[in-house]
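Tokens as discussed.
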């Protein structure tokens, strides 16, 4: 059985602001790289991308700038036309550049207004012939520093934007910043904040809705639970308070619903008012907001995967908290060990987040591997958990669509709410 996955990886500027996402895809048990033969690349790419995107081009890919690599066959199938030109950067690599027919299509798309990016750009004749149509050049962080510097300086002098890919270490990140890279992507960028917050942060518009919800004459507990569940810091704070000495009970609250029931609506209102008065003008930086969004995506993905995972020692709601809490060490200036010691999550979740051990650790590893487009680890973890690999991409994009829709609602306050 062939495994076909599609995932997106963020492209950030030097301040941690997301410029867009690269759509990475894998089919027929291999990622599509420049080393693959043209025949296998075209077959796998067309089979995976075209069939999926014709049905799902609106799912999770709207409203952002998407960098996507296209093969000759996909260019000829006019697959880029599935996307609005303002939301797509057509990426090509050497296999396209050396194909005469492909170049005709690339120039056609450029004239139509699509942005063009070139992977692993080189200043050699076959690349130079395309310079007039190129908007972005992408260079590998693993290049020798001198070559990277020279390439980027020349490209910038010609008005081209430069994105450094495969940024895996702080040293590579710092070098890219010093060379004035327009964008950076890689596992280091996806997993690291420029600075940590010194206290927990929460999404202001979500918090506003929470205040409205708890002050209604007849509060809807389900609505309150949903709003708190969308924010890692609020979830953490609520569980910490519900299990404090003041509210000590024989049975500890391990879910958001239990914590709300423990406090009661009266105490919950006081807690929310306290947060309101202590953070009246909080402005969240781009990095913090992205980590809150990541935590929401991990929570949703973990919870949905639980529908298919076999022999799991935790519930779906606990899996949701595992994903939600996975970024807390970036939102709170404290080690993860100390953070988890303050909330009564199960030992299985603690072991997963701290050591990656147990079946929960495999689930967590699967979620992280999908973020990183680590195809081999995705296959191994899915098989070990008994999750059908053919369903992963649809689950991932369903979660992404849900998160994007809810996030848009949460981050937009109507005029009558201000």
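Sequence:
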């Amino acid at each position: 059985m062939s495994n076909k996955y599609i995932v997106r990886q963020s492209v950030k500027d030097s301040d941690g602001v997301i410029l867009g996402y690269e759509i990475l895809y894998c089919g027929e048990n291999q990622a599509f790289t420049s080393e693959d033969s043209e025949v296998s690349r075209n077959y796998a790419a067309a089979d995976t991308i075209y069939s999926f995107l014709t049905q799902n081009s609106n799912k999770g890919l709207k409203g952002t700038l998407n960098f996507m690599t296209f093969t000759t066959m996909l260019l000829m199938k006019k697959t880029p036309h599935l996307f609005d030109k303002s939301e797509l950067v057509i990426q090509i690599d050497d296999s396209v550049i050396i194909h005469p027919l492909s170049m005709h299509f690339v120039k056609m798309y450029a004239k139509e207004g699509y942005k063009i990016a070139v992977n692993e750009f080189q200043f050699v004749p076959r690349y130079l012939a395309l310079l007039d149509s190129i908007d972005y050049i992408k260079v590998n962080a693993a290049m020798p520093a001198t070559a990277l510097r020279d390439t980027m300086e020349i490209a910038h002098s010609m008005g081209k934007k430069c994105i450094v890919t495969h940024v895996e270490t702080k040293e590579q990140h710092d070098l890219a910043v010093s060379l004035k890279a327009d964008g950076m992507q890689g596992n280091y960028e996806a997993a690291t904040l420029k600075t940590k917050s010194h206290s927990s942060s929460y999404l202001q518009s979500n918090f506003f809705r929470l205040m409205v919800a708890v002050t209604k004459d007849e509060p809807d507990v389900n609505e309150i639970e949903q709003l708190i569940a969308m924010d890692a810091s609020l979830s953490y704070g609520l569980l910490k308070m519900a299990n404090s000495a003041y509210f000590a009970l024989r049975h500890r609250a391990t879910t958001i619903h239990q914590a709300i029931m423990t406090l009661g609506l009266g105490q919950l209102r006081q807690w929310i008012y306290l947060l309101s008065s202590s953070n009246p003008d909080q402005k969240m930086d781009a990095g913090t907001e992205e980590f809150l969004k990541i935590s929401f995506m991990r929570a949703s993905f973990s919870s949905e995967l639980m529908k298919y995972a076999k022999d799991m020692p935790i519930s779906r709601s606990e899996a949701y908290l595992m994903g939600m809490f996975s970024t807390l060490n970036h939102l709170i200036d404290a080690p993860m060990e100390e953070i988890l010691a303050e909330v009564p999550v199960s030992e299985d979740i603690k072991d997963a987040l701290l050591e990656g051990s147990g079946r929960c650790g495999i689930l967590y590893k699967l979620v992280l591997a999908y973020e990183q487009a680590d195809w081999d680890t995705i296959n191994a973890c899915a098989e070990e958990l008994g999750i059908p690999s053919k369903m992963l991409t649809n689950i991932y994009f369903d979660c992404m669509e849900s998160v994007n829709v809810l996030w848009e609602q949460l981050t937009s306050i109507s005029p009558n709410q201000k």
